């Protein structure tokens, strides 16, 4: 860094800053604040992969267990070229708070490998996954730390992790991951759970504001697991999806887009751009479209100082983790935008992961209807609990969710005590 230049805050710095500004109002001791902030365990590994052509490549990987006071560590695994330790630590901390906000008996974790999975053949992806699993095998397990899919990973990758772990143990251990294929003990409804949870949170927000939902216009940034499922569920409920973006571009049609058809186009073209029943634009055009609701469902730090002022939506439902920077948060709050924060809004994935873990432990599997209804119960309860805190303490929903999460983690720490 050049002397005098301003270094950009990492997502870890921002997450800590947000957390500390809330903890400072809660009269926690200095030690407890530090305990709640810092990760319990950080493991960095080199993931060595033999490429199809015979060369070897080494990718950096991490698994971070942030807090395990409320239960086993739980969190996704991300394959992305920009994955780094600071990001993984921040996402692990958010998982701790998310599980606490929803009342799920898990702690927080996150893992990742700095790799672009699109540059790997299927065999290379499998080998990378198995090697990464082998490198972290001693710290994961159904009672210790349970990975799940995140950006760049999916049910197929979870199956390879489960198989590698099971081979090491000598027997099948389906509970080591969630987000597995149904054929291997996955749960009905897990694949779409995060998007569905975003929808339940949004419906609760519209209800408390007594908004007539007919003809509300929705824009979705990111059209992967979370964004595409949220868009399709909302469309099926009668909402109008006016814009969708992904890494390759964005599409816009103020009369509405059928996200099922747009998704089919994406499967063939690799991006929503070029979809015939809408206008194609640059991917960041999504922040400027006329809409009532914006769902960021791509990556961190997407809504920032430079585009927050352009956003016309009155509601933001954070499907992604940490999509809004601190400065953007201030701008949006000043504009009166109602933000449903990530640690509440996108908790549907970990909630159904929890159901998957429960079903696996019981060896008794639920219907999709039971999964969806149970998910709705948990998401609604969490929303109203956070909303109550926000009213009582006169704070925005992000601070309210953080207060609730921190208080529940702090209570668990106090009850368990510090060993030895
Ligand atoms: P994914 O890989 O399935 O999809 C990511 C999408 O974002 C893709 O469509 C990609 O093209 C798009 N994208 C990337 N950069 C973009 C950009 N600059 N502009 C517009 N679009 C861009 O990932 P996912 O699983 O849907 O996760 C998305 C977000 O949701 C992440 O923040 C993740 O941590 C969070 N999340 C995911 C889950 C889950 O169950 N998958 C659960 C909770 C939170």
Please specify the SSE layout and strand pairing.
Elements (H helix, E strand, L loop, with lengths): L10 H13 L6 H8 L3 E10 L5 E12 L5 E7 L5 H18 L5 E6 L8 H14 L9 E5 L5 H15 L23 H16 L8 E5 L3 H12 L3 E7 L2 E4 L6 H11 L9 E3 L11 E4 L8 H4 L6 E3 L8 H9 L3 E3 L1 H4 L2 H15 L5 H26 L3 H20 L4
Parallel strand pairs: 3-4, 3-5, 6-7, 6-10, 10-11, 11-12
Antiparallel strand pairs: 1-2, 2-4, 7-8, 8-9
Helix pairs in contact: 1-3, 1-14, 3-14, 4-5, 6-7, 6-12, 6-13, 12-13, 13-14
The structure holds nicotinamide-adenine-dinucleotide (NAD).
Descriptive account of the structure:
This protein has 14 helices and twelve strands. The chain is an alpha/beta fold and 420 residues long. The chain has two domains: 39-182, Leucine Dehydrogenase, chain A, domain 1 (Rossmann fold, 3-Layer(aba) Sandwich); 193-345, Rossmann fold. The strands form two sheets. Strands 9-8-7-6-10-11-12 form a seven-stranded mixed beta sheet. Helix 6 packs across helix 12 (348-362). The model is unreliable at 1-5 (pLDDT under 50). It binds nicotinamide-adenine-dinucleotide (NAD).
Concise overview:
With 420 residues, this protein is of the alpha/beta class.
Strand order of the largest sheet: 9-8-7-6-10-11-12
CATH class bucket of the largest domain: Alpha Beta
Q: CATH H level of the largest domain: which superfamily?
A: NAD(P)-binding Rossmann-like Domain
Secondary structure tally, helices: 14
- Low-confidence spans: 1-5
- Helix content percent band: 40-55%
**What structural category characterises the helix and strand content?**
alpha/beta
Q: What is the CATH architecture descriptor of the largest domain?
A: 3-Layer(aba) Sandwich
Small ligands present:
nicotinamide-adenine-dinucleotide
> What is the count of β-strands?
12
The shape, in one word, is globular
Order of helical and strand elements: HHEEEHEHEHHEHEEHEEHEHEHHHH
| Rg (CA only) | 21 Å
Terminal Cα separation, in Å?
42 Å
Overall average pLDDT: 96
State which percent range the strand residues make up.
15-25%
């Amino acid at each position: 860094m050049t002397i005098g230049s301003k270094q950009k805050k990492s997502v870890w710095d921002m997450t800590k800053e947000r957390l500390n500004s809330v903890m400072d109002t809660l009269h926690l001791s200095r030690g407890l604040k530090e305990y709640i902030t810092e990760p319990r365990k950080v493991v960095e590994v080199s993931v060595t992969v033999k490429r199809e052509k015979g060369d070897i490549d080494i990718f950096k990987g991490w698994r971070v267990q942030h807090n395990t006071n409320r239960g086993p560590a739980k969190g996704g695994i991300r394959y992305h070229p920009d994955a780094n330790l600071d990001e993984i630590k921040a996402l692990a901390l958010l998982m701790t708070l998310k599980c606490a906000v929803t009342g799920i008996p898990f702690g927080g974790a996150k893992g990742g490998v700095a790799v672009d999975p699109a540059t790997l053949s299927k065999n290379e992806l499998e080998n990378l996954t198995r090697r990464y699993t082998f490198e972290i095998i001693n710290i994961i397990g159904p009672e210790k730390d349970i990975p799940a899919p995140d950006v760049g990973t999916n049910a197929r990758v979870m199956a390879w992790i489960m198989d590698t772990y099971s081979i090491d143990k000598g027997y099948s251990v389906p509970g080591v991951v969630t987000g597995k294929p149904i054929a291997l003990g996955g749960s009905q409804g897990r694949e779409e759970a995060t998007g569905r949870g975003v929808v339940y949170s949004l419906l609760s927000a519209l209800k408390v504001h007594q908004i007539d939902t007919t003809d509300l216009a929705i824009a979705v940034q990111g059209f992967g697991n979370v964004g595409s499922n949220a868009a399709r569920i909302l469309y099926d409920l009668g909402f109008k999806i006016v814009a969708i973006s992904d890494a390759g571009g964005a599409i816009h049609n103020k009369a509405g887009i059928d996200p099922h058809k747009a998704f089919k186009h994406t499967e063939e073209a690799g991006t929503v751009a070029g979809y015939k029943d809408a206008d194609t634009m640059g991917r960041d055009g999504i922040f400027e479209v006329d809409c009532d609701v914006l769902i960021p469902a791509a990556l961190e730090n997407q809504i920032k100082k430079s585009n927050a002022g352009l956003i016309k939506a009155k509601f933001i439902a954070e499907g992604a983790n940490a999509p809004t920077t601190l400065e953007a948060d201030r701008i949006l709050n000043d504009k009166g935008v109602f933000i449903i924060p990530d640690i509440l809004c996108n908790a549907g994935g970990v909630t159904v992961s929890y159901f998957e873990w429960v079903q696996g432990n019981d060896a008794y599997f639920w219907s999709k209807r039971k999964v969806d209804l149970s998910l709705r119960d948990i998401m609604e309860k969490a929303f109203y609990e956070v909303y109550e805190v926000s009213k009582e303490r006169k704070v925005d929903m992000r601070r309210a969710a953080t207060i609730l999460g921190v208080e529940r983690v702090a209570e668990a720490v106090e009850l368990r005590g510090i060993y030895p």
